[in-house]
Amino acid sequence: MFKPRADPCIFLHSSPDDWLLLLGERLSGELVRRFRHLARDVDDLVQLVADNPGILWVGLRGLEVGGPFRNEWTLFVEGGYVAPHARARWLYVETGERLDVRVQVSPCFLLSSLDKPGVRYTWRNRASTIFRWVSEVPRLQPLEVFRRAFPAELRELAHSRGYAWVAWTRWRDRRNRHLAEWLYWLDTGRLAHIDALLGRMCTSPSCTKNPSSEGLYISAL
Q1: Residue 114 belongs to what domain range?
Q2: 3-state secondary structure 9-63
Q3: What are 27-52's pLDDT values in tens digits?
């Protein structure tokens, strides 16, 4: 049984070193073995999944996973499903501003099979704004597709105000935590809560702006 130190969102986190650290060498090696016809090593596998996240689930069937993220892994391995909820905990930034952007699913939801009942509906219902920019959820190279699709002015908000500021704005009565995760992922290719697990965070109140795409302004999990 494998006991990874991260949830399945790690597969959208484009850092081979972080995969090895959080999945462990045994599980990383098992994944390379299962995809050996397409990937020679972890670096190849990270790129393979980035290009086609949907290819992953089929190769995980039968994988026995325990540890602190057992439920999330079981749901993904057995059902091809990753829950759409936000995961990062952002430093509090006082703001009463609202954004007319309905994106209430995490980028992690891209790992869920579009062929599963309810997945397409969840995208349309909880992330309807995305379909102003793309006609369908992309199956191939989603990071690059969304980097081109997201409006420049929206991404600039994260650069000028900070990811935490975006997270504490509202869409109707809901915080934009999911949107902040998207903007961080688009800038870095990494998931904010995974970076937090590795201690890449800023706990100072001054961390409300993002002078570089590598800055992570979230609180400890």
Answers
A1: 85-221
A2: HHHHCCCHHHHHHHHHHHHHHHHHHHCCCCCCCHHHHHHHHHHCHHHCHHHHCCC
A3: 999 999 999 999 999 999 999 999 99
Token duo for residue 80: 């091809």
Q: What six digits make up the tokens of 10?
A: 């790690």
The number of distinct structural domains making up the chain is: 2
Helix (H, G, I), strand (E, B) or coil at 174: strand
- Write out pLDDT tens, residues 61-93: 999 999 999 999 999 999 999 999 999 999 999
The pTM of the full predicted model, rounded to 2 decimals, is 0.91
- DSSP label at 112? S
Domain check: are 61 and 94 in the same one? no
217 and 205 in contact (C-beta within 8 Å)? Answer: no
